[in-house]
Amino acid sequence: MSVITYRQALRDTLRAEMLRDDNVLLLGEEIGLFEGSYKITEGLLNEFGEKRVRDTPISEEGFVGAAVGAAMMGLRPVVELMTINFSLIAIDQIINHAAKIYGMFGGQTSVPMVIRTPGGGGQQLGATHSQNIELFYAFVPGLKVLAPSTPADAAAMLRAAIRDDDPVMLLENLGLYNSKGEVPDGDESVAEIGRAAVTREGGDITLIGYSRMAAVGRQVAEQLAEEDISVEVVDLRSLRPLDRQTVVDSVRKTGCAVIAEDDWLTYGIGAEIAASIQEGAFDYLDAPVRRVAMAEVPLPYAKPLENAALPSAESITTAVKETLSAVGKRVG
Amino acid sequence: MADTAKAKGGGTARSTGGRRRSRKDSTTSATGGTTSGVADEKPDVLLDYYRRMLLVRRFEERTGQAYTQARIGGYCHLNLGEEATVVGLMESLQERDYLYTNYRDHGYAIHKGMSPRRVMAELYGRTDGVAKGWGGSMHMYDTQTRMLGGYGIVGGQLPLATGAALAVSYRGGDEIVMCQLGDGTTNIGAWHEALNLASLWNLPIVYAIVNNFTGMGTTVEKSSAEPDLYKRGSAYRIEGVRVDGRDVLAVRDAAVDLVEKARSEQRPYILECTSYRLKGHSVVDPAKYRTEEQVAQARANDPLAAFEDQLEKAGVLTEDKKKEIADSVKDEVADAADFAENSPPPDVSTLFDYTYATPVANESRRMPADPVFAE
């Protein structure tokens, strides 16, 4: 067992998959000579050469679409989009093409490609570079959307994504790249796409999150344990398909739920989770489902404003305690 | 005067009327009257092209008819008037070559090798359709014949085809990719991005622009600041050629030339085929935006009528032969329509068969009125 960063887990997995399968190639802006904006692809150009680590022009629609076409021919391209914000420029190729080709042509040709891209605010990047728009992709049948919150999951999910025959979007997070976690040495585990996980068991309340919010959720649960509050944490892990059953099973046990999400509240992923809880655990609910989400503004640059707008351990803690008070459970 | 114009990567254009392939010879006048070419081609090849063009014509007429009878739904764009371009382009490809097109794809599908039966069945939305009824008119696709799709989103096929060429290049194959597109498509960003990538990465691809001078109703002059579309690869050092798309031999020769250059040089090329839709943008379009003069001109330049006339004058197409071909094409189209009519529609139980190629946990299979959690 080694403790490595989320970044290292991604890099090690990319390298191992490229060694395993010649059909795997990397495409993206500044991934070669520059070694990636966030250094995920560090060292890979040197090791694999320009044929397999391909620097692209600033041309998201072009190179994402080219990856779709190459995948139709049986290659397994892994595209890096510098941030999820730039995926909007390629959205036609992702939603109208990558997600449609298998079904629209009657199952003749799959599209085995991966788009890796980080979301996440909190880096003072301003409104256009701080969005969490994974919802756009999670909305679309034909795509698979994964959101790892730990280094071990980042590795296992990237491995699963590369080996899967469908287009997979792997949502990374700027705030998680430096986070550390245990990854088994020589790990070859492949995540099962479409499965959520209960990452901490508890009996008082269910806390649901994904990506950075799942990581923050675990910290909150740990702190609240010191106050004798037992929080069960569900990490969604897969945004499409969505594992509603794991969420509902947990809420049936605890009777109440808080959902933490980095995206905007209205129409957000939390809204879908709340609806699912209502449908699957109506008779078990002791309190309204509570959502913690980003303030509905274009995220400002100035630090006090940015901090105030983003969900945090504090805001999640508040929501958990208020929900527990509402159901009459003792709050420490 | 020849109207095969050529734009070097550097942006100059020159007339290359003398440009010939050794196998055959064709010169096309600017007004569309073919003056030679037929005399140099084998009669059976000419008759084969004539039959192929007639097949597109009759197939599309039958398609239009079936559409107005509500046997075919959705959008429906026909290749009427583009028969020479369709046949000439498809004749330039080897079986191993790949094809991507836009939504006006029926003729291409047939002449890349799909059976008219299965193309018609797709139009009817039946299980024997090339895409099992999942695609419809705009989305003909067949792995076997390497027609990798008609695409309904204008220009969506450009990055895809470019990526397919990247895969060919990655593997060191000797196939090429042809990417057909319409004139209006040369104004979207993906056109420029695809050309830039294809040139930077030295990809074996021919972008074949079918310039019928009209988007839906908007003319090339109103939409393209450089209306000579074959020049539009100049900024990316991609050589372009313009050919009279109403002349099947000229299209074939120009296309063979570029296809083989793309293959041997591992470089992208642009071929612009000037053409003219005989009818509106789609079956339901009455084309009121066209002047009477324009319509009369198109009819006068009907590529099928012109080719027929040439073959008759050259003594290649006798009255008997003409009737024989007409009858056999008529039968083939009738057979395709019968086949489509008798092919079963897809069973609703197959609705969730093609969302994912790799089965996945928790994939939703609920029908519209189903509860999310069935207890």
Strand order of the largest sheet of chain A: 3-2-4-5-7-6-12
The averaged pLDDT of chain B comes out at: 90
**CATH topology (fold) name of chain B:** Rossmann fold
Mean pLDDT of chain A: 97
The helicity of chain A comes to 25-40%
Query: In terms of per-residue confidence, which ranges of chain B show pLDDT below 50 for 5 or more consecutive residues?
Result: 10-36
Helix/strand order of chain B: EEEEHHEHHEHEHEHEHEHHH
Percentage of residues in strands of chain B:
5-15%
Number of domains of chain B: 1
Number of helices of chain A: 12
Description:
Helices cover 37% and strands 20% of the residues of chain A. Chain A folds into two domains: 2-183, Thiamin diphosphate (ThDP)-binding fold, Pyr/PP domains (Rossmann fold, 3-Layer(aba) Sandwich); 197-326, 3-Layer(aba) Sandwich (Rossmann fold), CATH 3.40.50.920. By secondary structure, chain A is α/β, with parallel strands linked by helices. In chain A, the strands form three sheets. A seven-stranded mixed sheet of chain A has the order 3-2-4-5-7-6-12, with helices on both faces. Chain A has a five-stranded mixed sheet with strand order 9-11-10-13-14, sandwiched between helices. Chain A has a two-stranded antiparallel ribbon with strand order 1-8. Chain A has helices at 6-20, 44-48, 60-72, 91-98, 101-104, 134-138, 151-163, 212-225, 244-254, 269-281, 303-309, 313-326, and strands at 2-5, 24-28, 53-55, 76-80, 114-119, 144-146, 168-173, 180-183, 197-200, 205-209, 231-235, 238-240, 257-264, 290-294. The radius of gyration of chain A is 20 Å and the shape is globular. Chain A starts with a strand and ends in a 6-residue tail after the last helix. Chain B has 375 residues and is an alpha/beta fold. The radius of gyration of chain B is 21 Å and the shape is globular. Chain B has helices at residues 43-68, 83-91, 106-112, 116-123, 157-171, 189-200, 220-223, 248-265, 292-300, 303-313, 319-342; strands spanning 5-7, 13-15, 27-28, 34-36, 98-101, 147-150, 177-182, 205-211, 240-244, 269-274. Chain B is built from eleven helices and ten strands. In chain B, a hairpin with a 5-residue loop joins strand 3 (27-28) and strand 4. The N and C termini of chain B lie far apart (77 Å). In chain B, the strands form two sheets. In chain B, strands 2-1-9-10-8-7-5-6 form an eight-stranded mixed sheet, with helices on both faces. In chain B, strands 3-4 form a two-stranded antiparallel sheet. In chain B, helix 1 (43-68) runs antiparallel to helix 10 (303-313) and helix 5 packs parallel to helix 6 (189-200). At the A-B interface, helix 3, helix 4, helix 5, helix 9 and helix 10 of A face helix 5 and helix 6 of B.
